[in-house]
Amino acid sequence: MTEPAITARTLASPAAIESLAAEWRALEKATPEATGFQAPAWRLCCESGKSAARLVAVRENGRLVMLLPLQIDRMRGTAVARWLGEPLAQYGDALALPGPRRPDWLAAAEAEIGRWGDIDLLALTRLRADGVLAACGAPLVLASASRFAAPFVDLGRAPRRHRSIERRMKKLASHGELRLEAGAGPQDRRNAAEQALAFKSEWLRRQRRSSASLADPDVVACALALAEKGVLCVHRLWAGERLVSVELGLRREDAYRSLIAAYDSDLADCSPGHALTLLLMPLLARQGVKHFDFLPPADPYKLAFATGATTMGALYRPFNARGAVAAFALARLRPLAKDAVHALTDPGLPIGSMLRHLARAAARSDRACGESSNMGQNRFPSGAGTAI
Description:
It is a single chain. By secondary structure, this protein is an alpha+beta fold. The chain has two domains: 6-146 and 311-381, Aminopeptidase (3-Layer(aba) Sandwich); 151-310, 3-Layer(aba) Sandwich (Aminopeptidase). The protein has helices at 14-19, 21-30, 102-114, 132-135, 163-173, 186-206, 217-228, 272-286, 300-303, 321-345, 351-372, and strands at residues 6-11, 52-60, 63-75, 78-83, 95-96, 121-128, 141-142, 150-154, 178-182, 233-239, 242-252, 255-263, 291-293, 308-310, 312-318, 385-387. A hairpin with a 2-residue loop joins strand 3 and strand 4. Helix 5 packs across helix 8 (272-286), helix 6 runs antiparallel to helix 7 and helix 10 runs antiparallel to helix 11 (351-372). Residues 364-388 have low confidence and may be disordered.
């Protein structure tokens, strides 16, 4: 019997990528693990020109069977290939038809990337333990800290009572009758997305924190464009005539993923963000959604709702010394820096607790060093979800 012919090709020009759009959409629909962050619309994130989309299309006997949607970014002089749509896209993965041939298709894709010659590092982060690359047996490094997991709610379970949130909702209702509505039409969705980003920026300012993503005009422009085009769905919570909370999310099949949740900081004591979530989940359940995904990290407010969490991991492939240094920084130094910034900017954290927090962060980084040194030996476990 003749072996199936497997070919891998790189698509980088706008015309070549556009010519693949129909097959791309069909493959996304046929990939059981697809999260919505691998849809063709995410190439909007490269329209500014700062990132260059580069797709690896794998075919078997002419049929598109696997696609790695990537982009090339320059990071302090280092050329890094990472998932298309980052940093706004929260999950990265390949798209692939189901079946036992996936490892062979991935091998062809990896060989094609190895021939590029113009990148320093392949940084495949934001990988779910139940994703395509995990199913292919790729040597992925697991996140060492549980806070990097992705909490979710199984909407098929009997709903929890959240009495403390319900009490604060009554306080919120004193500002006017609570009303949850979905964005209707392109301009309405864009306006709501602008308000969500304004709420989030004000919250960050008051918390004395920063977000490199939301401070980037190109990332903001991409979020607004995705909302306007309906790729992101929008829900708003009103108290009378006052807008109190906005959420931007991504829906695919029976799963909903909460991308940006923001609220009026002047009403923080009423928990308007929690109120929106509590009202939104039963609404989505009635619409056929079974899985409400909070996305990583596993922040406390998410865990208050969650019924489980999905393990996350990453794969770094440096091609030279510069790429190895970048991999070290991304895998080990950046998480430590985030922990340090959080500790130093938390106004309610006493100095003793702050130092302990930093010490724990350093210990996590040390553990990550050990894991990263054994990249080829770590595999995802078969259990992708953890019940809470």
